[in-house]
């Protein structure tokens, strides 16, 4: 049995990853399972949310929200939650199912967790295309305003910091393909991904993190 193709869409919140994932399901041939961050967060017990979506936090001054575990406890569980997500992605691929997963990888925790490298190891030997989904920070703020009413300069400092670090994290990764959603529609991004998968070369960006 051939392995299913894996496409990891990585980028900050509101970059357009979910829309691109949907476009891949709608337009690329074969069965494409969407195993992204939103689905995983929805499956996570409310007390441990946002789970894999935990954004950069200053835990020293953080308060515990009612019904939620302390952020120190959640942060310690984040590597396990990511491992479970990527193990599921790998299992689907090994059964011949294509997978698209929209995720957000940063390492701005209270200590380095090196989660992306650990996740890459779980996909060792499988066909993976690591795609950076980007757009300028000004567009991010326009989308945050339209979605959540968040306006730069009027939100809490930790929100502004999270957006800034999200942009920084996106620039620190090495990708097989990078797409700008301020210039391309979701359907056009999916078409570029299809073109890369058809023409090659195969993805190697995540393989480089595990030395194989």
List keywords for this structure.
212 residues, single chain, Rossmann fold, five-stranded parallel β-sheet, globular, alpha/beta, 5 strands
Write the layout of secondary structure elements.
Blueprint: E1 6-10, H1 17-27, E2 32-34, H2 37-43, H3 71-94, E3 98-103, H4 115-122, E4 128-134, H5 137-148, H6 157-172, E5 177-180, H7 186-199
Any overview of this molecule?
With 212 residues, this protein is of the alpha/beta class. It has one domain: P-loop containing nucleotide triphosphate hydrolases (Rossmann fold, 3-Layer(aba) Sandwich), CATH 3.40.50.300. Helices cover 43% and strands 12% of the residues. The protein is built from seven helices and five strands. It has helices at residues 17-27, 37-43, 71-94, 115-122, 137-148, 157-172, 186-199; strands at residues 6-10, 32-34, 98-103, 128-134, 177-180. It has a five-stranded parallel sheet with strand order 2-3-1-4-5, sandwiched between helices.
Ranges with pLDDT <50 over ≥5 residues? none
Instruction: Give me the CATH superfamily.
Output: P-loop containing nucleotide triphosphate hydrolases
- Determine the CATH topology: Rossmann fold
Main sheet properties? 5 strands, parallel
CATH architecture: 3-Layer(aba) Sandwich
Give the helix level as a range of percent.
Answer: 40-55%
- The CATH top-level class label: Alpha Beta
Overall mean pLDDT stands at 91
Task: Count the domains.
Answer: 1
Number of helices: 7
Estimated structural class: alpha/beta
Q: What is the distance, rounded to the nearest whole angstrom, between the alpha carbons of the first and last residues? A: 22 Å
How many beta-strand elements?
5
Query: What's the overall geometry?
Result: globular
Rg estimate, integer Å: 17 Å
Strand content: 5-15%
Reading the helices and strands in chain order gives EHEHHEHEHHEH
Order of strands across the main sheet = 2-3-1-4-5
